[in-house]
Amino acid sequence: MALLKVTDLNVYYGNIHAIKDVSFEVEEGEIVTLIGANGAGKTTTLNTVAGLLTPRSGTVEFKGEELSRVPAHHTVGRGMALCPEGRRVFLNMSVRENLEMGAFTRSDSEARETISTVFDRFPRLKEREGQSAGTLSGGEQQMLAMGRAMMSRPSLLMLDEPSMGLAPILVDEIFDIVKELHEAGTTVLLVEQNAAKALSIADRAYVLETGRVSMAGDAADLAHDDRVRKAYLGG
Ligand code: ATP
């Protein structure tokens, strides 16, 4: 059984049909990426899986349970965590407080234990634990958003454009962290406009085009596909 199985999802914003019959799966232990141009529907798909949006039709099965009408604050307790587009860290709160917010489904002792794991993974956050998040650089804010998502100890970590707005060296660092989290046992669903990077770390990929899945397959195969190369890899 797939960890996440999305079937025939249709999502609307008013009359705009943003997601059209989208189906995909994530198996436990995989990194799966959704790639596509601006406005293709990647964020809408992720937000629907997380329970921030309700689909007009279709199902989101997670660990065998139908969650498409379960709101986001309950999907976290089921083992999903979303690291949203634009990071959305609480700028006026400290680094530590931001991390604690990610543990709202867990006991204080569990949160304390996980915070030290997160600090081991992100030593730069440890150094800045008392500093307000608004004073962090873009890359550090991205690490904080990922650390906050890890605080619920998710079985599925969903990352929306983690590389957005970061200098190339930081993009590499963020992708290395995603690989490390994956090697430590986290299943990852990654949304990216940086298709080259995303395909280089993913097991499988789905290409979204104007709200539909246009291609799917092994990430390595798609990285060599002529259509993918022309449309998303700059040649
Ligand atoms: P990006 O990388 O730019 O975020 P995306 O692939 O994540 O692109 P979405 O943000 O999911 O795409 O947008 C899918 C479609 O839905 C687009 O046509 C977009 O204009 C539309 N859309 C997104 N959010 C809203 C909204 N709140 N209200 C109306 N339309 C929206």
Tell me what the structure shows.
The protein has helices at 42-50, 72-78, 95-101, 108-121, 123-127, 138-150, 168-183, 195-201, 219-224, 226-232, and strands spanning 4-13, 16-26, 31-35, 57-62, 65-66, 80-83, 156-160, 187-192, 204-209, 212-218. It has 235 residues and is of the alpha/beta class. Helix 7 (168-183) links the parallel strand 7 and strand 8. The mean pLDDT is 90. It has a 6-stranded mixed β-sheet, sandwiched between helices. A 4-stranded antiparallel β-sheet has the order 2-1-4-5, with helices on one face. The longest helix has 16 residues, at 168-183. It has one domain (4-232): P-loop containing nucleotide triphosphate hydrolases (Rossmann fold), CATH 3.40.50.300. Helix 3 runs parallel beside helix 6. It starts with a strand and ends with a helix. The site of adenosine-5'-triphosphate has 12 residues, from strand 2 and helix 1. Adenosine-5'-triphosphate is lined by residues 13, 16, 18, 36, 38-44, 193. InterPro entries: AAA+_ATPase (IPR003593), ABC_branched_ATPase_LivF/BraG (IPR030660), ABC_transporter-like_ATP-bd (IPR003439), ABC_transporter-like_CS (IPR017871), BCAA_Transport_ATP-bd_LivF (IPR052156), P-loop_NTPase (IPR027417). Belongs to the ABC transporter superfamily. It comes from Granulimonas faecalis. This is ABC transporter ATP-binding protein. GO terms for molecular function: ATP binding; ATP hydrolysis activity; branched-chain amino acid transmembrane transporter activity.
